[in-house]
Structures are given as C-alpha cells and as structure tokens.
Amino acid sequence: MCWQGRAGLAWWIWPKAVHTAAQAILAAKEIKPGNRAPDFTLKNDKGERVSLASYKGKVVLLNFWATWCGPCKTEIPWFIDLESKYGTNGFTVLGVSMDEDGWKTVSPYVAEQKMNYPVLLGDEHVNQLFGGIEALPTTMVIDKDGRFAYIHYGLITKAQYEKEIRGLIGI
C-alpha cells in the first residue's frame, strides 16, 4: 500500500479511535457502582485540607447535603448513629455541605446537631467531579478500595444504609 493509501486509512480510522478512547475515559469517570470514586480535597471548618483518598481502606458514606434540605435533616441523626456504631470498624461518614452561604451557616448547624463525623464545604469543582449533584441528599457508599458500592439520590431508609455498611465492613 502506498503512503497515500495509508494516510487515507489513518484519516478514516483516527476519529473512530479517538472517539472510542474518549468513550472509555468517560465511562471510567461515570458515577456508577464499581467505578472508582474521584478524589478531591476540601477544607473542614478549621481550614484543614481533607481528601477523600485519605480514607482509603475504610468504607465511606459520602453524603452531599445542605442545611435547608428537609430529607438531609432526616438523615443526619441516622449518620451520627451509624458513625457511633461502626466508626471503630473501618467505617466513616463524610459529609459535604453544598450550602452556598458557607461556614457561617454550616458551622452552627453542625454544632447544634452534634455531628460526630467530618464535614467539609463543597465547591463547584467537586460538584462537577461527581457528575453535577442535582438532588440533595445524594449519598454514595464507597468500599475499602475506593470504588462506588451504592449510590442513592434522595432519601432512603436508615435500615438500607445499615445493611449496605454492614455488608461492606463484614459484620
């Protein structure tokens, strides 16, 4: 085959190969069970930087919430209880507040509720990393290897969370 024929073939194959590679990259980044959770670093109320990767080896209940969200207010006492029950068994709750007013709204709420788990303040970057959080609460249960095990949009039952957590920590 002459060089023009090869160039023509490459011209025809190249867009398909790029498209296939792009689709594979997007599929790997999708927020779905089995995929790796994207790492992020956010600040807590003390200004300390906390990354999701620092929890590798633990089961993490990653909860996107806001102080104004009714279903979120229902879940928070459950998460406090789950953290108390299973926190010594390789489990943690990690709350990411999506409140636009920031710590001036979130800190008093965390104190009032006596939230016993780390709370971070979300930003647009993290929102986009997780596919654009469109519903609150959005909660993801991440396994010890950093992969999504369960994803929930909206309110589910405490019993369902507990079943998922117990299964992942092996109790």
Structure description:
The chain has 171 residues and is of the alpha/beta class. 43% of the residues lie in helices and 20% in strands. The chain has five helices and seven strands; from the N terminus they run αβββαβαβαββα. It has helices spanning 3-29, 70-86, 103-113, 124-129, 158-169, and strands at residues 41-43, 49-51, 59-65, 91-97, 119-121, 138-142, 148-153. The strands form two sheets. Strands 5-4-3-6-7 form a five-stranded mixed sheet. Strands 1-2 form a two-stranded antiparallel ribbon. Helix 2 runs parallel beside helix 5. The N and C termini lie far apart (64 Å). The relative contact order is 0.18. Mean pLDDT is 89; it is low at 17-29.
Summed up, what is this model?
43% of the residues lie in helices and 20% in strands. It contains five helices and seven strands, in the order αβββαβαβαββα.
Kindly list the characteristics that best describe this protein.
171 residues; 5 helices; five-stranded mixed beta sheet; alpha/beta; two-stranded antiparallel ribbon
The largest beta-sheet arranges its strands as 5-4-3-6-7
Structural class: alpha/beta
Low-confidence stretches: 17-29
The global form is: globular
Our Rg estimate from Cα atoms comes to 20 Å
Number of helices: 5
List the helices and strands and how they pair.
Blueprint: H1 3-29, E1 41-43, E2 49-51, E3 59-65, H2 70-86, E4 91-97, H3 103-113, E5 119-121, H4 124-129, E6 138-142, E7 148-153, H5 158-169
Parallel strand pairs: 3-4, 4-5
Antiparallel strand pairs: 1-2, 3-6, 6-7
Helix pairs in contact: 2-5
